[in-house]
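SEQUENCE-TO-STRUCTURE ENTRY
===========================
Question of interest: how does this chain fold, as expressed in backbone structure tokens?
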Amino acid sequence: MFLDRPETGSRALLVHIQQNDSELATVEELTELTSSAGLVPVRLISSSRRFPHPGTFIGGGKVDEIRDWLEDHECELVIFGDDLSPTQERNLEQTLARRVLGRTGLILEIFARRARTHEGKLQVELAQLEHASTRLVRGWTHLDRQRGGSGRGAGASSGLGGAGETQLEADQRMIGDRIKRINERLRKVTQQRAHNRRGRVRSEIQSISLAGYTNAGKSTLFNQLCRASVHAQDQLFATLDPTLRKLELPVIGGAILADTVGFIRQLPHTLVDAFRATLEEVSQADLILHVVDAAAPLRAERVHEVNKVLEEIGADHIPQLMVYNKVDLIGETPRIERDSDGKPRKVWLSSIDGNGKSLLLEAIAERLADDMIETTVLLGPAEGRLRAQFFELGAVVGEIPCEDGSVEMQLRIQESSLRRIAGEQALNHLPAGG
């Protein structure tokens, strides 16, 4: 017989098991994740274990220790810093008589709290349902509210089919139906994004996406670059919903900058799948700004974890510009580091005060300007509109007025932009020797 899951609450006992898989599996990260989910850590129990126990993850002795402590303390949740299998989660809940959350369940709780838009809420619900479908223990009868009439007549019981396998099958059916409906809605979102992206491609507008470990300062940087007001806070996963804004770059002109969800170690596959429409803004970008918390003690490991997620979503082939943020915390000077060929490779800056912002804009423009040319064009007195557009792009290096009213303009500009602005005849404006 399947038992109802224990009631949840806000007070949590944290269980951290140190394994050899990653130095990022820290007590600090588990505590921060718990607080980000709106929960209150009451106590931390730590242990080292080389291999997880197949039935309980932590073994019988540690389970007894946790159960004895719970008997004497008011605490409704037990949260593990690692993922638990459905069997492990079920066994622990039955033994401890407390709701048990693994790493994926905890991150899903955070995402549920952060989602603000209709699309974001759909994506989070999809991830929750896909995660729940593997661990059904009579915890999901509330989902019948999603589907109108349930076929119950007067005097019928509150369950859909009683206990046992019939209830389990009903839960599976409800979750399956809901997943189909959400996927259909998200498909429409994906189609709309693809349509908007095709429009940008036709207009030759280049796109840039921010990516990085959660809480690296992406949204703060986004606000600095675009003078936007995206929610930015010192917490994990502060931004879920993608935000696109126009970014003005020197020489190149307008581009589109996208702020997206932050990554983390072992980002749950259910979330990657659910947020695939959102993450397409990253996988379809012309350039990725990989934002790194320069003050993080394990920043190299975080860079590695972000690159793993980028590979998973098919964005590992896109050029990256590394942006080392929060230099104000480590006493570094804002600067650009270049490759041997002179191409910008890293930018060091502080997004909180904007120190280094101009360096980043310069580096982005250089990385995007693959077809940059230096040329001189001669514009007649009636071509003031073209002259204004060149200045608006920031492409004018200098100009020399001529006696007949024409202007000789020295430009540093993308050849594609020159053709788009002035047409093929612009290339014929080259004066002799220009």
Q: What stands out?
A: The first helix runs from residue 27 to 36.
